[in-house]
Amino acid sequence: MASIIKRPYRLSDGRDLIYYDDADTTLDPERSPDLREPSARPATATMRQDPLTGEWVSIAAARQNRVMLPPAELDPLAPATPSNPSEIPSLYDVAVFENKSPSFGPLLADDNQPEGLDDLATVGLGRTRTSVGRCEVVCFSPETTGSFGSLTPSRARTVIEAWADRTAALSALPAVRQVFPFENRGQAIGVTLHHPHGQIYAYPYITPRTNALIRSLDAYGPTLFADILERERASERVVLAGQHWTAFVPFAARWPIEIHLLPHRHVADFAETSAEERDELATLYLRVLRGVDALYDTPTPYIAAWHQAPVGVRRDEIRLMLQLTSPRRGADKLKYLAGSEAAMGAWIGDIPPETAAAAIREAIDRADRESPVGELPVQVTDLVTVVPDSDSVNPRKADR
Predict the structure, then answer these.
(1) Same domain flag for 215 and 241
(2) pTM across the whole model
(3) How many structural domains does the chain have?
(4) Are 249 and 259 in contact (CB under 8 A)?
(5) Same domain assignment for residues 199 and 212
(6) Catalytic residue check, 197
(7) What number of other Cβ atoms are within 10 A of residue 41's Cβ?
């Protein structure tokens, strides 16, 4: 048994940076400080309410300045070098840091922040609220190319541990209503960096998709997730199943490639999963992703969205769930959201879910034969936090 180690630091401008060392890491425990001159952080964005839907839109102009597909030698998520003073000062296994150009935050409190769920649900004209919250970047690897599916089982397990740790920490922040880990993969999805990474959004509201889910729970009842899982596990749409998780193409799939992954036990978010569930997920999820890539001769673009229960709302009914979607409907064809889907939200599926499931099962089997994932090299115990000395955590403390 071994431990994943958490090492919290700060960047020169005060943003949090957290290293998560693999349970079988070979890294030196020391980390270099961020010696860049501090730069001013952007102002926190403002949310505006759409009175036609009641939904909130964060107007985050600072995002216009984010880096767009830089060359590998200027990768802002690679370990820093003299010629590339990146966001991460040292070599790492997994690193998490506050986004430099966030959609929500850096403020966690403000005079115009949402006053609660009733305030957010009120509909009016010209309503604004400060976009308090937090946006974080999760770097899966120091490599400049790849995705979650290219990780080792040990590294995948470290990322899952980071998701769980950050879910717990972000859920405890004031004004945060929901925490959302996700990965965008591929230029067809709109990624701006080739580096293998994901993000975590901590929203100051409950998202529209989750509000729609709550309406379904109200109409169906609290056993919705358990009943979906039982029905899907008995269907031909299952693509992979383990002791703790089942992956399947949903009955009413919208996208040409769409896979849902549910834990067998009710857990509201990553923070509630057990060590055994995280261990199995590290290898099972890799097999799913490598199967998706094996469908065609080139990597498949996708969005891997980890839906979690809101903070303090319906947590005994809403279950942690992955919804992986891809617009790829052929080797060189993409599904674009045209009039019916984009304008009216009325979806038309291109491929029967049972046909898609059969193709994905075959692709997972082929990937297992050609590039087996393997087992976790060590079983993981509890996360261990190691806090360096204050000057290393906050290297410019003496300058202020």
Answers:
(1) yes
(2) 0.96
(3) 2
(4) yes
(5) no
(6) yes
(7) 17
